[in-house]
């Protein structure tokens, strides 16, 4: 199997693992509510790192994707302070709330850092394992 194909398959399998874990964790009812939302940011970052890597599976992207995911996520966090009608309408949908968020909180930023770091580690492990 060609290397690029191995990388893509490992990325797809990783997405199949992280997506249900992230979604189920954010809706897990037997934990502290705020903790579910905050730690969900870690899974959110990892998911977007893997998703971008699916389309840009290069060695350079292993470093660049987590940085850009962190920057974009931070911008989306600040966007939650703005409530024009179009954003409120998009946030009224489940997917809009999951992608755009609805409430700004400074406490999300450390989880974004951790999630981007783990996203980098995950991408690095996929890249390193490509030849095995």
Radius of gyration: 16 Å
What number is the mean pLDDT?
88
Distance between the termini: 11 Å
Looking at the structure, what is the overall shape?
Answer: elongated
Question: Unreliable runs, pLDDT <50, ≥5 residues?
Answer: none
Order of helices and strands: HHHHHH
Biggest sheet features: none
* Structure classification: mainly alpha
The counted number of beta strands is 0
Helix % is over 70%
- Specify the number of helices: 6
- Strand fraction equals under 5%
Description:
78% of the residues lie in helices and 0% in strands. The chain is an all-alpha fold and 132 residues long. The relative contact order is 0.16. The longest helix is centred in the first third of the chain and has 24 residues.
Helices and strands in order:
Elements: H1 3-26, H2 33-55, H3 59-79, H4 85-91, H5 94-100, H6 108-128
How would you concisely characterize the structure shown here?
The chain has 6 helices and no strands. It is mostly helical.
Features:
mainly alpha, elongated, 132 residues
């Amino acid at each position: 199997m060609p290397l690029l194909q191995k990388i893509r398959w490992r990325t797809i399998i990783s997405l199949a693992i992280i997506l249900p874990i992230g979604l189920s964790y954010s809706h897990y009812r037997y934990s502290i509510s705020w903790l579910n939302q905050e730690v969900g940011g870690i899974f959110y970052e990892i998911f977007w790192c893997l998703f971008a890597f699916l389309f840009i599976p290069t060695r350079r992207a292993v470093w660049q994707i987590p940085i850009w995911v962190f920057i974009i996520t931070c911008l989306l966090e600040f966007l939650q302070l703005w409530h024009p009608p179009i954003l409120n309408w998009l946030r009224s949908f489940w997917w809009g709330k999951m992608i755009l968020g609805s409430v700004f909180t400074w406490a999300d930023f450390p989880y974004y850092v951790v999630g981007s770091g783990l996203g980098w580690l995950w991408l690095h492990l996929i890249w390193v394992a490509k030849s095995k």
